[in-house]
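Quick look at the format.
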Amino acid sequence: MFFWMRKRKQIYENQKGEVLLSLFRNLFTVSKRISFCSSDKKASMTIEACLVLPLFLFAFLNIISIIELYRLQGNISAAMHDTAKQMAVYGYEYQALSGGDASIAESLGLTYLYAAAKVRTKLGNDYLDGSPLAGGATAISWLRSSVMQEEDCIDLVAEYFIKPPVAVVGFPKQIFYNRMRTRAWTGYDNAKNSTDFTDEEEIVYITPKGTVYHRSKGCNYLKLSITSVDKSFLDTQRNQNGEKYYACGQCGASCGNTVYITQYGDKYHTTLGCSGLKRTILAVPISQTGDRGACSKCG
């Protein structure tokens, strides 16, 4: 009896050992498989990350640059709007004081150079230098602007280049424009625009030393379009009639690297205060024009 009990105990212990050994083998096999599969997945994810991450960063930088570009354009437009409104107010003083004196226009801030300095001050050099603007704060060109020329309008045009955030072949710098146009506070010309009193005598415009009268106050012969150029390039400049520019008899002998020319004149000037760049405009009835003839452009 005792013998059979010991035999059963020995069989039970042997079976228990085999079961434990089998479980251990299974766990070891599963562990090896899990370890092998996990290593494969990690390698696959590393390769995918290497391929996708640069593309994601490039797309993210471009989205940020587009947002920054729109912000830059909006800030430039806002600064130009404030500057144009301020210059429009100065237009009233300009008309009341001078009737067309270029030196007074410069002192009042009615030039595109004043507009450029004002916009740059409003935005700040640090902001412009750190923006997508190629060349920084001094790279904005205002040469397409005009002040107090056509119908007393202030037309500010900012031209500049935008650089991509990351240098990519095939994507060069792009040119952009911002424009702000407003009319100076010079009042309403009743003599020109009235339709209720058609029997009144026509009002025309003359200058004290002029030989013709003008039907339009915005005539280019009255509203001088003054442009500053480097004296070394003067030989290549021509006026609207294709003529060369010669030294002004009053100020042309002065030395200077910068000279001033007009669209229809044939003289260059070394100072904006020269009387050759001034226009005193008088509104008179056509019967008081004397022996003056009609302007070839607006008469």
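Next, a different chain entirely:
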Amino acid sequence: MNASTYMQSLLWCCSSCGFVYQGGQPKMECPICEAYKTSFIDSPQHIEAEIRETFGDDLANSAEARDARLARLREGGHLRGFRVKGRVVEAVNHDRTAPSRTR
């Protein structure tokens, strides 16, 4: 893939792990960290161009590239205001907090 191809396509970045999904709407969950679809943000093109120049197209979703992408997004203030950061798993409560039951 050359630079003009990915610069014109829609890129979604997972704000939890830095994974980039290229194309239409992202899937319901991130394939890396299983964060919900709402944690994907529109990836700024200048940041993505910088990451791909550094790591290359083949390694754009490597662990190092994802970490660098998240660092650049934080520096630019692109991650502020996003509430959903991952999956919320219900804790085991053994009916201690069930509101319909009284003891």
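The first strand starts at residue 11 and ends at 14.

See the schema section for token definitions.
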